Amino acid sequence: MPSRSSLSTAASRTPGAGNSNRFFWQWWRKQSPNQQDRYATLGPLVSVLLFLAAIIAAFWYLRNEELEREQESVKRDTEVVQQQIRMRMIESQEQLLRLAREISIKAVNSEQFMSQASDFVRARPEVISVAWTQADETVKATHSAMNLYLPAPQGLNLDPYASLSSYDPLRGVQAPQSAFKLAKERNQPVYSQPYINGLAARVIQIQVPLIDSTGFIGTLSAEYSLEALMRYMVPREIVSRHAMSLVQVGGEVLTSTVSASTEGSAKPTFVHEVIVTPVGNGLILRGMGFRTSTNLVGNTLFWMVVALSALTVWTLVGTLRHMRRRAQIQKTLVQETNFRRAMENSMLTGMRTIDLEGRITYVNPAFCAMTGFAEDELIGFVPPYPYWPKDRLDEFNRMFQQELLGRSPTGGVEVVMQRRDISQFDARMYVSPLIDSQGNQTGWMTSVTNITEAKRVRDQLTAAHERFTTVLEGLDAAVSVVSVQRGELLFANRSYRLWFGANPGAHSELTGGEFDPADLADGDESVDNFGNLPTQELTAAGVDARDIYMESAQKWFDVRARYIQWTDGHLAQMLIATDITARRQGEEAAARQAEKAQFTSRLITMGEMASTVAHELNQPLAAISNYCSGMVSRIKSGSIGNEGLIEALEKTARQAQRAGQIIHRIRQFVKRSEPQRQPARARDIIEAVLDLAGFEMRRRRVTLNSTIAQRLPTLMVDPILIEQVLLNLLKNAAEAIDSAQMPQSRRHVDLRVQLRKTEDQGEVVEFVVTDAGPGMKAEMSSRLFEAFHSSKAEGLGIGLSLCRSIIESHQGRIGAENIYNGSTVMGCKFTFTLPVDSSGALDFPDSVTPPSNDLLADNP
Asked: Are residues 134 and 239 in the same domain?
């Protein structure tokens, strides 16, 4: 490596040194010695790299020139061969056109054709055969050069008058036929696709159309051997330089001037492709150049220069890396010293070092701040130390002797230390031996942590835990916590132990899950085994509340469970079970009272309709009596025959059936039964209500019009309760019209039932009862569905309240509103909906369903 003095001496001897040298030396003197050494090392490295780059650029330029010359040579030879083939094919095509014209004008017969074809084939070794084909694809005459020296293959028909279809045994296609058809269609020479003929030779064929005054009369075809075409059309000097091949567009090689094994083993360096004209049809001439020799001398010199340059660069890089390594080691040492010093100064843990005799050799700032003594006040001290409490010197002396003997507890020891201002604090001390780089113990390292605040917080947590436990023990609800991973009971309050004992099985029964510790012992604590959900997601989830009946305790419990993170960090499940047996008994009693109220409402309704029902029954009974009296009289007088008697008996039976149906409807309506949901057809419910409501409508001279949708789904409801709601609404509408003494034009009630889709309930069946009565007062609309509130003087006020309870128990909605014409009230509309059961089938109507029924018509 050149020294700085030698560089400065060489520069001073350089002739013509001017301002640039002066500025350079001024900059050089400003650099530090380390930087000057680095630049002195980088200079030779840069010069070697530049030299290597120049050598590589020169070799690269010469090689590119050589490659360009070779590429141009391949392109030139390929175009020469393509021109040779093109001229040969055009010359042969012109000869065939002249012969075709002579055939078309009848100037040549078959014998003359054979003579001219023989001359044509003899002068062109690449032509295998020439054929004269008629319009019906039969060969009239053919001359083949292969006939002279090749035997006919087995199964090959060489009859000159055989069909033109040349069979391709390898491809299974008839290539010339497509060229024959194209020549017939275009009326111009057409070359076929390359194919393999019956002699297993790759050939192409030209079809020249024969046209006379009558039109197309056939073709004149010539078959060219691709191998012979390459053999005779490619000059020898070109073959010696480059390889030529005929290929198809897909890349299949048809023939080549080199063997297939040679072409497949060596990859061409230069390739140039041109289309073979006038053939076309995807036939491409490919010229290929191969690098058969290498510049041994040039490559040897090049690699020697590269090797020497690489060796020089490696030597210089090694020197530079060695210098950098030394600088980095020095820098790392300084950084490590500064880092350790900064870490020690920023630590909250006090560090103290003593030698084997007990003399303090080092304290960090945290220890000084903890005790209140400065570093120079502690360094060199021997026991008793100034931070030992005066009243505990004997205790500290014993601990110090244990420390020197290496018998200090590994978990540390709690001590009380004294500050400079005589105040005391709680601390925990950890002692470990101090080992030097030779493996010898030189002293003891002690770490001191102030645990005064931690101890105070621990005492507060202990007190808080006791208060919390006291509160949980005083609860009337059972509280338990079970580990998800181990399945063990972590906590149970007094109520849980009183009801279930210390058994985690009751916890599992209340939550509906089972804990198997054998399956959960090796599980991932970050994943819940029951739902395969992350622990964090489970602990953030809400509380799961449900009612559970415990057979063993004969009690109902309101169970609320959720996942929590236990104190040890494991996933646990907390459960709070509240005894709700009294509440459930009250709810059951209320349900029984509601059932009784519904039954009472139905009895009240039928009581109000008693006179109408009696009137309805009198009509069929009177008709039966009249029919029987008439039959007795006519039988006595002998004026009735068997047909008349049968007719009268049938009418009597119909009236009896009608009376029985009325009684059956009433009994079904007032029959007391437990509420029970079942699949029910909406049409059956409506028809049952219309039969019962008809009595009230006729008594009050009100017309009931019903419009029922043609396709209604099956509902999952209690049909008796829904009939009660609908009947109550229809009866209220009739009473409102009758009590208001409305004129005949407004004495009508409309019932409309349809299928509708809502945003909150989805698909529902909507029942709409509309009357033309006086409507509701404004102050009544807000309290219409309240219990014991009625707009009628003699009403009990439980009808609409029961209606709302029944509809809401079926997850439906009920409401009422006035109908206005401007500001005039024209009536009232009650609407209730029932959600459609998704599994219900559509209720198709009967064949005849009238859109409305007038129930004021006379009885039959």
From this structure: yes
